[in-house]
Amino acid sequence: MLDCIEITTGDSPELAIIWLHGLGADGHDFEPIVPELGLRLPVRFVFPHAPVRPVTINGGMPMRAWYDVLGFNGQASEDAAGIRASATAVTALIDREIERGIPAERIVLAGFSQGGAVALHTALRAPHALAGVLALSTYLPVAPTLANERSAANAATPIFMAHGTADSVLPLRLGESSRRALEALGYKVDWHVYPMAHSVCAEEISAIGGWLAALPASRG
Q1: Catalytic residue among 79, 86, 167, 178
Q2: What's the total number of domains in the chain?
Q3: Active site includes 113?
Q4: Which of 1, 109, 196, 210 is the most exposed place for a label (fewest CB within 10 A)?
Q5: Measured between alpha carbons, how far apart are the two ends of the chain, in Å?
Q6: Has 177 been annotated as catalytic?
Q7: Which are the contacts of 63, defined by CB distance < 8 A and separation ≥ 6?
Q8: 159 is in which domain, residue-wise?
Q9: Residue 45 Cα distances to 102, 122, 125, 183, angstroms
Q10: Of 157, 159, 188, 193, whose CA–CA distance to 176 is shortest?
């Protein structure tokens, strides 16, 4: 089981949000966002730490990463095995929330950058319908396999995607092409673009809070 930070905003949480950080960060990265979302119902936030592993674009030096990054020249450079291993680890966190009394339809998977890629990969293949997916400044990994591997249970799961116009790490075009690939498969994507770099901004946080509050899982 992944080591995690947990924040519960009230007794008997009614919603769980599993939030995956980006490359080189850790589970503390998105802790400050919790009060800024303005959610009224009690929520358990789970912020896992990615394993420490050698990362090719970091000169092979170890850092926290959900998978290796071999380069930026397309799908041929994707660490599909690493992505799938992290998806298995995140699925175990989903199963733990279910065991703790929060049904799958009240669990949101969220992630930023590399974490967002794993969130998309995991959620769309999950056997139980989830409440929603937050994919921030990210892209759809191992996209060619999704059509054959996707789960019917999450065909209608709400997806919130956001990207910055000045993102030099994962350019906006990657987010846009991922959105189009998802829509081509019938997924409904709530798409947002902000004048920012590879980061989050106040307007985006406000939109995320509103989107989470509007989910059926948040309305009881």
Answers
A1: 167
A2: 1
A3: yes
A4: 1
A5: 29
A6: no
A7: 23, 24, 52, 53, 55
A8: 4-218
A9: 12, 18, 22, 28
A10: 193
DSSP 8-class letter at 153: G
Does 192 participate in catalysis according to the annotation?
no
Task: Indicate the pairing of strand 4-8 with strand 43-48.
Answer: antiparallel
pLDDT surpasses 90 at 65 = yes
For CA atoms 64, 66, 72, 76, give the dihedral sign: positive
The Cα angle at residue 23 between residues 19 and 25, in degrees rounded to 5: 70
CATH of residue 133's domain is 3.40.50.1820
Burial 80-116 (b: 16+ CB within 10 A, else e): eebbbbbbebbbebbebbeeeebebebbbbbbbbbbb
Q: Which of 113, 137, 178, 218 is catalytic?
A: 113
**Model pLDDT for residues 168-220, shown as the tens digit of each residue:** 999 999 999 999 999 999 999 999 999 999 999 999 999 999 999 999 988 76
Long-range contacts of 150-153, Cβ-Cβ distance < 8 Å, separation of 24 or more: 150/124, 150/125, 150/185, 151/124, 151/125, 151/126, 151/127, 153/126, 153/127, 153/128, 153/129
How far apart, in whole angstroms, are the C-alpha atoms of residue 45 and residue 65? 20
Specify the pTM: 0.97
